[in-house]
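Me: I keep going back and forth on a fold encoding question. No explanation is needed for now; the record alone will do.

Assistant:
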Amino acid sequence: MSAQVVPARAASGASRRLALAILCAGQLMVILDGTIVNVALPSIQESLVLSPSNLGWVINAYLIPFGGLLLLAGRFGDLFGRKRVFTSGLAVFTVASLLCGVAQNSAMLLVSRFIQGVGGAVTSSVTLAMIVTMFTEPKDRAKAIGVYSFVQSAGGTLGLLLGGVLTQIINWHWIFFVNVPIGAVAVVMAQRKLRAEEGAGKGKRTDALGAVLITAALMLAVYTIVEAADYGFGSAHALGFGLATLLLLATFVVRQAKGQDPLLPPRMFTFRNVTGALGSHTLMISGMFSFQFLAVLYMQNVLGFDEVETGLGVVPVSLLIGPMSLFLAPRLIAKVGPRSVLLTALVLIAGGLGLLGQISADGAYLTDVFPATLPLGIGFGLAMPSLAGLAMSGATPQDSGLASGMFNTMQQVGASLGLAVLSTLAASHAGTLLGDGTARAEALTGGYQLAFRVGSCFVLGALVVAATVLRNPPRPRPGNAPTARPSASRAAESDTASA
């Protein structure tokens, strides 16, 4: 039996907490980098003399490899050892951050951002799996997932604040330099303190063709979605690349169904909570991204906020996410189950986005934005631990790295989908209003209103999926410690029983 299927009970509480801190430090760097660049884009454009189309690739060059490699890297963690995968990804991310910081032209910056996306994907893909295999007791696991979820959910808004402060006080190069010392220390600590795992791939063949197919399909899917904002979803460009994506995915599915050592075992999709959590997670992130992206534009373009003021404007969400995910969510999950907590959280998020759908062109932060940050912060802080726990509850220990990679992949796909759809809707509706003679501020606000309302509908879709598909995982019997499930069949039986 490999080291990954044996619960890590020998580790002391202090060593596990240190390991959790190392894992979350690496994850925080990756999550921060997803948004820290956003508020620095005008400064980067001016410094490197980038065209508007090239400026978008400062974001996309990171998103495409990040979204495309999560699934593959997660599976490699299962097969070849998660510690090895995590430390390798973190090292690549740190070096790429240094290269981004010293970039003096657009080509160097875009190539470095691509490499940074590769490192970020490899780092993120196995983090959740390492946490759930390290903390086997339900109470400890809920707390650890709460910490991880806080990093996941609050990191994006913290990135907006940090990006604004560094850009305005020093310069944009420091949004990348700040990663270097943190990453270097994290790599050394991870190498010394994280437990080595043998992996389950010894003696098995690696599905190289399957790896190429799924990576190409996911990268192409993210590319198609993010570029649809410029070309349009009905354009020949979007339809052509979308069809190519579907063909790659279909070929991959056929290969996995017939292969002896599939990269993505079909049994993963028989776990009800895995598939339900992934679907709900994708829709929720798609809707929530309207706040992370469009609320920033509203504060800057309509309310006239600068970078630091914009960052401060999203801080209330992070301040609420912290106590929700770290303290309240684990207690509620233990008491009523993750499904009930998630349903309540999704109602709060949908309501918060609905409030943002009422913003006005002559509004103010305290009356138009701040009231929405309360249900959004509370809801997101409760939703992320619930979703992460549900997604991992159906996977076997041998497949937890893959489940972790799938969870993060859907988060990235959801963010890309939300950005493309909602920004396109906002820009299109604003353009129509401008064409009708509407004042610029009112036209922009009208576009943002529509996007926030559609984002709220995405979250309501997540609510429907959660209510109809997800079930609370079975509670361990009193006096019996939970044990690792040794086979996929037992995991499937557990999911069926919980239904």
Observations:
- Residues 400-435 form the longest helix (36 residues).
- The chain is about 80% helix and 0% strand.
